[in-house]
Amino acid sequence: MKITISKENYLKAIAEAESEGELVIAATLARWLKVSAPAVTMALRRLKRDKLIQVDELGVIHLTGEGEEIAHRLIRRHHLIERMLTEVFGMDWYRVHDEAEQLEHAVSEEFEKKLIEKLGVGAMGLDSAKDRREMGWIPLSELEPGAAAQVESAFERDRDLLEYLNSLGIRPQALLQMVAVNVDQTVTLDIAGRMVPLGHTAASKVWVSKS
């Protein structure tokens, strides 16, 4: 069985969508991977043939043991590459996801071991919303008025949104305070003395820990 880049991308998308609490059906993958419905249908047929996924009677897609192993191996490499790009090369945090998406398929086991030797193991697997809450993190949208917090991460695949957050000063380790939760579904933040408005959807993608 040949594991192509396309297969790896589908398997990883299934694992990531599941970790975010989504019900993974064909439409979910079309949205996550920005591909057409017919392309998803063809890909799922190949993954089923290779026994990497199972699809139940409701159309919900599940990884098999082998599919999960491939997905999580790719995710570990993705996180290692992101750390390499930020910690070794100093790349901006909002740029590393797209770069890692390209490089993760080319990393050999030998190079992966070298990255671990250089960077340490750290946190390389998937973490769900439940995992983040157990670490004491909450979505920025849930921070109550008057509370201060530190930005921990932004869980979002959209590079434009990450760049927008960065332009507002909302980046990992940034300190902020919730000023107000507004009736129009926006929030107002105090970031380094600057009043910054942010929509509820964007705020829900940002995870923070209370200071």
Task: Give a verbal description of the structure.
The structure is a single chain. This protein has 211 residues and is of the alpha+beta class. The protein has 2 domains: 1-126, Orthogonal Bundle (Arc Repressor Mutant, subunit A); 130-210, Ferrous iron transport protein A (FeoA) (SH3 type barrels), CATH 2.30.30. The chain has helices at residues 5-19, 26-33, 37-49, 65-88, 96-103, 109-119, 129-134, 159-168, 200-205, and strands at 53-55, 61-63, 137-139, 148-154, 175-181, 186-191, 194-199, 206-210. Strands 3-8-4-5-6-7 form a 6-stranded antiparallel sheet. Helix 2 crosses helix 3 and helix 4 packs across helix 5 (96-103). It is globular, with a radius of gyration of 19 Å. The termini are far apart.
Features:
211 residues, alpha+beta, Arc Repressor Mutant, subunit A, SH3 type barrels, 6-stranded antiparallel beta sheet, two-stranded antiparallel ribbon, 19% strand, globular
Determine the number of helices (DSSP H or I, runs of at least 4 residues).
9
Order of helices and strands: HHHEEHHHHEEHEEEHE
Counting DSSP E segments of at least 2 residues, the number of strands comes to 8
Q: What fraction of residues sit in β-strands?
A: 15-25%
- CATH class of the largest domain, please? Mainly Alpha
